[in-house]
Amino acid sequence: xxAFKNMSKEALxxxxxxxxxxxxxxxxxxxxxxxxxxxxxxxxxxxxxxxLDSVNSSTDLTGINGADYRNYGILDGIPxxxxxxxxxFNVTTDQxxxxxxxxxxxxxxxxxxxxxxGLLGSTPWASxxxxxxxxxxxxxxxHFGITEYFGIQMIPVEMDENGPDMDFIxxxxxNDPYIKGIWCVPKYSNPAGITxxxxxxxxxxNLKPAAKDFRIFWDNAxxxxxxxxxxxxxxxxxxxxxxxxxxxxxxxxFSTSKITFPGAGLAGMASSKxxxxxxxxxxxxxxxxxxxxxxxxxxxxxxxxxxxxxQMKKHADIIRPKFEVVDKTLTxxxxxxxxxxxxxxxxxxxxSLNVEEGCAKRTVQLCKEAGVTLTNAGATYPYGKDPKDSxxxxxxxxxxxxxxxxxxxxxxxxxxxxxxxxxxx
Amino acid sequence: xxAFKNMSKEALxxxxxxxxxxxxxxxxxxxxxxxxxxxxxxxxxxxxxxxLDSVNSSTDLTGINGADYRNYGILDGIPxxxxxxxxxFNVTTDQxxxxxxxxxxxxxxxxxxxxxxGLLGSTPWASxxxxxxxxxxxxxxxHFGITEYFGIQMIPVEMDENGPDMDFIxxxxxNDPYIKGIWCVPKYSNPAGITxxxxxxxxxxNLKPAAKDFRIFWDNAxxxxxxxxxxxxxxxxxxxxxxxxxxxxxxxxFSTSKITFPGAGLAGMASSKxxxxxxxxxxxxxxxxxxxxxxxxxxxxxxxxxxxxxQMKKHADIIRPKFEVVDKTLTxxxxxxxxxxxxxxxxxxxxSLNVEEGCAKRTVQLCKEAGVTLTNAGATYPYGKDPKDSxxxxxxxxxxxxxxxxxxxxxxxxxxxxxxxxxxx
Lengths: 425, 425
What we know:
The structure is a homodimer.
Chain A: H1 9-27, E1 33-35, H2 42-46, H3 79-89, E2 96-98, H4 103-117, E3 132-137, H5 141-149, E4 153-160, E5 163-164, H6 166-175, E6 179-184, H7 198-205, E7 215-219, H8 237-243, E8 250-255, E9 267-270, H9 273-286, H10 292-302, H11 305-334, E10 341-342, E11 351-354, H12 360-369, E12 372-374, E13 391-394, H13 401-424
Parallel strand pairs in A: 1-12, 3-4, 3-6, 6-7, 7-8
Antiparallel strand pairs in A: 2-9, 4-5, 8-9, 10-11, 11-13
Helix pairs in contact in A: 1-13, 4-5, 7-8, 11-13, 12-13
């Protein structure tokens, strides 16, 4: 296959005819496959069925500190769960909150709190003439959804394989006091699968923001979600911030949504003690505390850090072949067409595909018409607007290998068809 | 015993000497009993141990609509749980959200949402020159805590045995567009145990507020928490608001915190479909949805409305004797002293005690020094300020009958001692 851009009009027209026939054949199959979100497969859910037995009516529900976990009390998570996540993130338990079932809710609430009350005594963001967030792209649509909901202006920041453009970020935060935050998925980023380099993390920790209440929203959603044994190491931002004299500059978020059961898992955050104490003061007004029984259920099932990592290996064994199928099918499907590039992540939940500029929306539409629902084109950019209309997020975990193979074939045909349509004008 | 106010100085001095001796004897026992909050006893918690077995690894976790409750999805509660609460509150399931574990969090979030975004298109409350809430007193300290946290000015409203002073409320909301809400515990109120009369509920439903976004925060925390079989009926505010042409004026909140396990239960809200739809739009940004497995656990344990009411009878059997002990001990302890009155509730979690004016703080302090921790005096009023320094909230459910008897004796002695101290000047 020749690169499309080197083809004559005639060759392109002929290619289009063949692609259209191929596409129509897929369409005739009347498939129905939803790959819009990064959700665990049935096989992954089966890994956690033991969670449902780990607490039962014979279980002693007295915590290590003597509290009855069936009753009221404990605002910031049971000590057992706080210890697990303190071990994982190399912090002390007073730097940890283990909350409800959704880290998204914790992030939303941090922003909501900053808007209405400010952070550590700062002016409430809602009282300022404007508030801006930096948004490394492509990024996570639900992050952008939160900042958009609160009327926070979003500024896209380019990324390369080492992370976001730190020159741009350093300059922006140093000069604009209305830049109050940045969304980061620092490990196996959503969707590009990038892990920030040590240098990037150090430069983050050493930022000199004009705004004292500038915060890095460090969504460590995929911190242990490796696909391979060669674990990619992410430098400890909390430690680096401490060393740099910026201990309060980062909020780290995590959850077990993709470790045990999404929705029935644990979510939490880690930060400086000062930040965590401030959040607890709000929680006293806001909450009766998390579901301690479900936290105990998790601790009895996962046991400790080793148990947690063991569980992640089982997940990796199930989803690794799916990522391999994606890479293989895209490699074969796009051949030498030269119209697409994609990530080969070492972990996380996504593959980031860049198709011919101006063709992402059309590709997603063609896929949908052939029965494959992908994440909306543009979703990986603030306001849903991909300036190049090129990025498509592939979420390979949920379908079976067979379904995924079929879906990726449809995707490559659709992307090629869209590219040829564009080149033919 | 003569009424204290009719006693001579000499008789009072003699009484004080005797009370002091009695008090000192209790103090010497070095008791330690915390009655600060309304929390279920161990015996009540035992009623729900079956909840821990109702879902296990052999359970089919497929919902009635085919969804896998182990995975992502469903924002507003599983259909089974929505139906239970729709049945209980006589509404349709699209008027119900079953959320996380805390109705307090739902209330906090409604206020937070109104402050930042307004309600159904109204001006965000935070953008107004002032925002006020009416607060029937004595009331629930955690309600007052939320409004205080958001800088909302609180206006106390007197209550009698039929509910709050509706003449005052009708006039206030009709004339002041900055009055945006009122906190109500309409059934077995916290702490007075009052159930609003039909007339009060109808007058609420027929309010003509100057503020279009005025809302009644109807915390139905004790809707089925009867102590006796003669169930006190509360008129259906949602139905009455609909009839009065004010369908969006009320948010009702509920939870199973005092039905199954506090913290590991379900919380929810009921309102007009328009209000619920608006909240769901926020939840799309804010949440990955509630813990569906815990909702299923509850449905398998409680089964249906009959099962729910059966569970409440078992609770009543455990706590009724405690309320009887409180009444008996207070009756005996205060005798004809004439310095105290208290409620005799038909349900709920509290007894409201009014001691001699100016003596509540001192009484609570004396109790604490004798090892009995009560809710802070003043807590039942906005800003913790009881203008008469008279009201004390008694939470009888947690201690055993024996502990409670001892605590109530200490309370009566302390209240009498405080009264005599005051009368002696």
